[in-house]
């Protein structure tokens, strides 16, 4: 099977997931900034991973473009955020918004927990986070999830877990095998 993993990552958590997935699939992990030269149609499956930035999936434009150009290639995407996966209402809401229909119909999607590393953020994102912390402080008084998010982010954390990629890898293998069977 030939697979490629394209990823958008600022502080390295999404890149780590992309590299783990690529290693499992025996393919390459390519940053989205270098992905324009990739012929997505030449792969049995394309995996895309992007991080959540104020609810927005970074790299989504590349995904939508590649998807539109290669409707017969299986696409599997994963979004990486600081939100704990157990907060299903928040995760579901972000996923539904960031994988809109019809552009991303048929793109299989997963959510994986990343981490938070303030010191590795760009300056604009550091400033955005300072504002976010202020907002969260107010909310934290009445909202226990805001309080938990705030303390996790303030201290920094690494929530990546290699075991969490198993369903992503399994789905890529299934879709690539189905594509192979169709062509045989
Ligand atoms: C400005 C900013 C906004 C963020 N917004 C969200 C968000 O809406 N939802 C979420 O779950 N995580 C959010 N995060 C956390 C990142 O998604 C998380 O740190 C992720 O692991 C970063 O991935 P990377 O290391 O690949 O860049 C935000 C982080 C920053 C800096």
TrEMBL record:
GO molecular function: electron transfer activity; FMN binding; menaquinone-dependent protoporphyrinogen oxidase activity
UniProt domain Flavodoxin: residue ranges: 4-142
One Pfam assignment: Flavodoxin_5
Any one of the GO BP annotations: heme biosynthetic process
Gene3D superfamilies: 3.40.50.360
PANTHER family: PROTOPORPHYRINOGEN IX DEHYDROGENASE [MENAQUINONE], PROTOPORPHYRINOGEN IX DEHYDROGENASE [QUINONE]
The protein's name in its UniProt record: Flavodoxin domain-containing protein
Source species taxonomy: Bacteria, Bacillati, Actinomycetota, Coriobacteriia, Eggerthellales
């Amino acid at each position: 099977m030939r697979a490629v993993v394209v990823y958008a990552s600022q502080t390295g958590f999404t890149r780590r997931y992309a590299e783990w997935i690529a290693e499992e699939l025996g393919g390459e992990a390519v940053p989205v900034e270098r992905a324009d030269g990739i012929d997505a149609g030449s792969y049995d499956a394309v995996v895309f991973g992007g991080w959540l930035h104020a609810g927005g999936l970074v790299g989504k434009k590349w995904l939508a473009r590649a998807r539109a150009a290669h409707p017969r290639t299986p696409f599997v995407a994963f979004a990486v955020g600081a939100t704990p996966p157990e907060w299903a209402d928040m995760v579901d809401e972000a996923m539904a918004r960031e994988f809109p229909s019809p552009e991303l119909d048929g793109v299989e999607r997963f959510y994986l927990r990343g981490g938070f590393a303030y010191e590795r953020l760009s300056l604009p994102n550091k400033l955005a986070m300072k504002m976010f912390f202020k907002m969260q402080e107010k909310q934290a008084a009445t909202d226990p999830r805001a309080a938990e998010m705030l303390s996790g982010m303030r201290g920094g954390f690494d929530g990546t877990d290699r075991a969490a990629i198993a369903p992503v890898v399994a789905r890529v293998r299934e879709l690539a095998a189905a594509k192979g069977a169709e062509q045989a």
